[in-house]
């Protein structure tokens, strides 16, 4: 039995959730697809799929085999692409993970450009801040914010941003506007905590001096959008990324405070496993992300005033007719409108 062929057939059956559709897309007789799966299960000595009259379900063994087979097929594709024309025309599925705020506000509004340049790449975008194991989860590339931990991953810095200390007018009317870091002790902050449970305290930098201020808090969240919303609703002082806060600063829903003490610059890096180092898909995607960030001063760590991006010239140029893009978006609410005002 051709194991690679069996893997491809199995993965396609799972993708389309149908033996018949898999046969059609692979150009094979349905009986051949059925026989291939049966022989694969017999060879492995386990049941991979639970078949009913309406749908197919993966068994636990099937889920484990799918993960391994997908990874093997992807790696084989990368090796073959190094010796074929795929180096010039990247193709195939590319799985990327990034923070939800960057994906929703910066990457997705411009993603039609990537599809136009590389129509044969199918993007799978995971939007989350959680730490992931790229190898175990079959992810090709991640975008991460902050200083990087030592690892075996290859990293490339693609941008940076600064946060802004701010609060709502209602909060400042009720508690006063702090003029010094010492006055923050009598104020309340909305806290942000990571998936590991670490709580980030407000931090500041001036003339090379960094200071962290521990503040009282009544609410903590682990989602960037919720964090900004808490600030807008007057629940406390926040330090969101300026690219997220700028529309609220422009509208007056948030007011910047302590402008002389700025939060430290936060680098944005693309990371990928060593076996993806020569991948044409990963290379062109990372290059494209770096180009998108380079267009936007906010994603280069610059501090733009609240009214800097009000003009139409700074708004993203979308196609007249939206294309149906081959993009799978994971774990993000797409009913909220948002765009990086500096992407052009």
Detailed description of the structure:
- One of its GO terms (molecular function) is DNA-binding transcription factor activity.
- Keywords: DNA-binding, Plasmid, Transcription, Transcription regulation.
- Residues 1-59 form the HTH lysR-type domain.
- Helix content is 35%, strand content 18%.
- 33% of the residues are buried.
- Residues 306-344 have low confidence and may be disordered.
- The protein has a 6-stranded mixed sheet, with helices on one face. Strands 9-8-12 form a 3-stranded mixed sheet, with helices on one face.
- The protein has helices at 3-16, 19-26, 30-44, 60-81, 100-107, 111-117, 134-137, 169-175, 224-232, 242-251, 280-295; strands spanning 49-51, 56-58, 92-98, 121-127, 141-145, 154-161, 166-167, 191-193, 199-200, 203-206, 209-212, 220-221, 255-256, 266-272, 327-330.
- It is α/β, with parallel strands linked by helices and 344 residues long.
- The longest helix has 22 residues, at 60-81.
- It contains 11 helices and 15 strands.
- The termini are far apart.
- The protein has 3 domains: 3-81, Arc Repressor Mutant, subunit A; 88-158 and 268-291 and 311-330, D-Maltodextrin-Binding Protein, domain 2 (3-Layer(aba) Sandwich), CATH 3.40.190.10; 166-256, D-Maltodextrin-Binding Protein, domain 2 (3-Layer(aba) Sandwich), CATH 3.40.190.
């Amino acid at each position: 039995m051709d194991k690679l062929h069996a893997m491809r057939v199995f993965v396609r059956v799972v993708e389309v959730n149908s033996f018949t559709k898999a046969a059609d897309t692979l150009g094979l007789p349905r009986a051949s697809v059925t026989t291939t799966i049966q022989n694969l299960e017999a060879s492995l000595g386990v049941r991979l799929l639970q078949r009913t009259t309406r749908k197919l379900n993966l068994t636990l063994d099937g889920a484990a085999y799918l993960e391994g087979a997908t990874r093997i097929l992807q790696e084989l594709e990368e090796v073959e692409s190094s010796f074929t024309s795929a180096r010039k025309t990247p193709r195939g599925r590319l799985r990327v993970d990034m923070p939800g705020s960057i994906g929703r506000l910066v990457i997705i509004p411009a993603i039609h450009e990537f599809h136009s340049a590389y129509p044969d790449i199918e993007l799978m975008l995971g939007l989350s801040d959680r730490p992931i194991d790229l190898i175990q989860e079959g992810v090709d590339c991640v975008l991460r914010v902050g200083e990087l931990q030592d690892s075996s991953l290859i990293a490339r810095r693609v941008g940076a941003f600064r946060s802004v200390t701010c609060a709502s007018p209602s909060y400042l009317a009720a508690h006063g506007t702090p003029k010094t870091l010492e006055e923050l002790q009598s104020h309340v902050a909305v806290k942000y905590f990571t998936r590991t449970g670490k709580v980030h305290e407000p931090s500041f930098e001036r003339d090379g001096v960094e200071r962290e201020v521990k503040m009282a808090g009544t609410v903590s969240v682990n989602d960037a959008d919720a964090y900004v919303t808490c600030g807008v609703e007057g629940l406390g002082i926040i330090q969101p990324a300026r690219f997220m806060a700028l529309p609220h600063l422009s509208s007056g829903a948030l007011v910047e405070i302590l402008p002389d003490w700025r939060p430290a610059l936060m680098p944005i890096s693309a990371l990928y496993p060593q076996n993806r180092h020569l991948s044409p898909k990963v290379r062109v995607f990372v290059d494209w992300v770096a180009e998108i960030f380079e267009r936007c001063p906010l994603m280069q760590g610059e501090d733009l005033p609240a009214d800097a991006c009000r003009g139409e010239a700074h708004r993203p140029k979308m196609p007249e007719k939206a294309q149906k893009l081959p993009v799978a978006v994971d774990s993000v609410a797409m009913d909220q409108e948002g765009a990086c005002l500096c992407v052009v």
